[in-house]
Structure prediction request, 83 residues.
Amino acid sequence: MPELPEVEITARLLDSALRGARIESALARTAETDAKNIQVDVRDGKVILKGRVHSWYEKEEAKREAWLAPGVREVVDELAITP
Prediction:
C-alpha cells in the first residue's frame, strides 16, 4: 500500500493590529456599546479592554465581542462602569 503524505493543519492567526482593529470595528457596530470610550490592546492572543462603559450589560457585550475575534485566547477586562 502506498504511503500517504503527512498533512499539517495550522491556524492562521491575524497580527495584533488587525485583530485590535476588528474588535474595535465590532464594538462600533454594536448598538449596545459606546466604542469611543473603549481602548483595545491585543498581544499574542491576549485582548486587554480599557476605558469606561455605561452599564454592566455594555461591559459584558464588549467582552463578548473581544472573544469572537479569531485567535483570542484571553480577554482581560479593565473596563470601569460609569453611568
